[in-house]
Write a structure and sequence with these properties.
520 residues; alpha+beta; Transferase(Phosphotransferase), domain 1; 2 domains; six-stranded antiparallel sheet; three-stranded antiparallel sheet
């Protein structure tokens, strides 16, 4: 099945609520909302280029026209533009808040432009378009917003020029215009506001149509959680039930069909695998609600939406985990895999990003295994099957790939997943990959030929010898030398006596601290 969509570099997680951006799509098309940072950055770059260009052109055409005020305005405009550009590029600000910052930026630029225009020209000739009017018209095209917000910002931006004219006239810096002169000069600003709002209303209509079009079966797509090379993951809601879900979309061109159409053979394979996943009943296997193909050929899976963190992100953010917690997490993953193996199914892509620890009802550190590869026991991947988790000759993820899978062995069974769990445990305990290498091929070869280094050699923390022995047993090159079933591995972990077990109190404290950090 498809590789989980990457929500940030070096991690992938299809369904966790913790990574949901706190923006609300409102009436805007969600694609445009997701693109706010890039669009706002583009606008600031325009101003960063135009502002000094105006100074240079003015000086070339009329030497000495630029005074201290013009240079001061240029410096201020550059400084504010660089700040907004930084905020847009950090990707840490929710889209709707970034939109608000952009509206403030729109008014600021208009104010500076108005001051420069009036100081140099006074009242413009009748019915001529100033830079302010052009800015008011262009901004909502590049950075769309809701009609009401666009109207408020456009009116405020367009009003900066007439207000500046009145202030300069009152101060005696320019002649006081008549009402007719004033009205004719400012009429283009009014037209710009009307057109800007009209553009926003068009976006509003597009958003409504897009919401109606973007539905998968009984589920309505509400918010995009992430995207990657395979497709997208969305937060969705059922049309009739009060239930949210995660919907994974796989675009038809990814499925290898001619002219962008999905390959019927692959669709049958996905359908079989989806049915097999739905039949699994372990509470530690992500629940699959629905599966289908949309009218445009997009394949979709509807899964439970989880509130938690994948194990890749867990270590990246919090470092190596206590042995007691690692044992608990791996044992729960064993529960999921043991049922799959009994049903003749092999995951084939066990890695930290495909295992989540969650808040699940009243339970904490509740493990869910995601994204089953699901190949029948003893069956090699079909020759025409897309290698959906790693481009190359074998499927899977090189950093966690068992030797028999790396060598494209036809006889792959559940013990391949045991090896993957060993790699995951190694990662959790040390914060390191078993075989960190500079290339994919070197990593695959290492898994196939080299003995894993000792866990205790990493000095990340004290690791009980019995736990290290179990992890290294999982990493045996010969499947016969590994724990033979996921249930057997779980029992081995259960029997380990730890000096510092992962208690309910430690668990509750960790999750409470995480929630407090998220709220900051």
């Amino acid at each position: 099945m498809p590789e989980p969509i990457s929500l940030h570099p070096a991690t992938s997680n299809a369904v966790h609520l913790a990574s949901v951006r706190s923006a609300s799509p409102g009436s805007l098309p969600i694609d445009l909302l997701d693109d706010v940072s890039r669009r706002l950055a583009f606008v600031t770059l325009i101003i960063l280029v135009v502002s000094p260009a105006n100074l240079i052109i003015a000086e070339l055409t009329d030497p000495g026209v630029n005074g201290a005020m013009e240079y001061t305005n240029a410096v201020i405009t550059w400084s504010v533009s660089l700040l907004v550009l930084y905020l847009a590029r950090t990707n840490r600000i929710p889209p709707m808040r970034l939109l608000d910052i952009g509206l403030g930026y729109e008014v600021f630029v208009a104010l500076v432009a108005s001051q420069t225009i009036v100081a140099q020209m006074g009242l413009r000739p009748s019915l001529t378009w100033s830079g302010v009017a052009v800015w008011v018209l262009i901004y909502p095209v590049i950075v769309p917003n809701t009609p009401l917000r666009t109207a408020i910002a456009s009116i405020a931006a367009a009003a900066t020029e007439p207000l500046t004219v009145l202030l300069y006239a009152r101060a005696g810096s320019i002649p006081t215009p008549t009402m007719a002169e004033f009205t004719r000069a400012m009429f283009p600003n009014l037209i710009a506001v009307v057109l800007a709002v009209a553009i926003s209303k068009t976006m509003y209509g597009l958003g409504q149509k897009l919401k109606k079009a973007r539905s998968m079966g009984s589920y309505k797509l509400d918010e995009r959680l992430g995207e990657g090379g395979m497709g997208e993951v969305w937060k969705a809601s059922h049309r009739m039930l009060a239930r949210t879900a995660a919907v994974k979309l796989i675009h038809p061109e990814v499925l290898g069909g001619p002219d962008g159409a999905a390959n019927p053979t692959l669709l049958k394979r996905f359908e079989r695998e989806a049915q097999a996943t739905a039949a699994l009943r372990s509470p530690h296997t992500v629940e699959l609600y629905d599966f289908g193909v949309a009218n445009d050929g997009t394949l979709y899976y509807v899964m439970e939406l989880l509130d938690g963190i994948d194990l890749a992100t867990l270590v990246q953010q919090y470092g190596p985990q206590p042995p007691g917690r690692v044992a608990k997490l791996i044992r729960q993953a064993c529960h999921s895999l043991y049922e799959a193996h009994l049903n003749g199914l092999v995951h084939r892509d066990i890695k930290p990003a495909n295992i989540m620890t969650c808040r699940y009802g009243t339970d904490l550190d509740f493990v869910k295994v995601l994204d089953f590869g699901l190949v029948k026991r003893g069956q090699a991947p079909a020759a025409d099957a897309a290698q959906l988790t790693q481009v190359g000759t074998v499927s899977g993820t090189p950093a966690f790939m068992p030797p028999e899978q790396a060598m494209a062995d036809a006889e792959i069974d559940g013990r391949a997943d045991i090896y993957g769990l060993g790699c995951v445990a190694y990662w959790l305990l040390t914060g390191k990959l078993v075989f960190p290498r500079s290339s994919v091929m070197a990593m695959v070869i290492a898994h196939a030929t080299e003995e894993p280094p000792s866990l205790s050699g990493h000095k990340a923390q004290e690791i009980p010898q019995k736990l290290e022995d179990i992890v290294l047993a999982c990493l045996a090159k010969d499947p016969d030398h590994r724990p033979q079933t996921a249930k057997a591995l779980s029992k081995m972990l259960e029997w380990i006596e730890l000096d510092m077990p992962w208690t309910d109190e430690a668990e509750e404290q960790w999750w409470a601290e995480r929630e407090a950090t998220k709220e900051q």
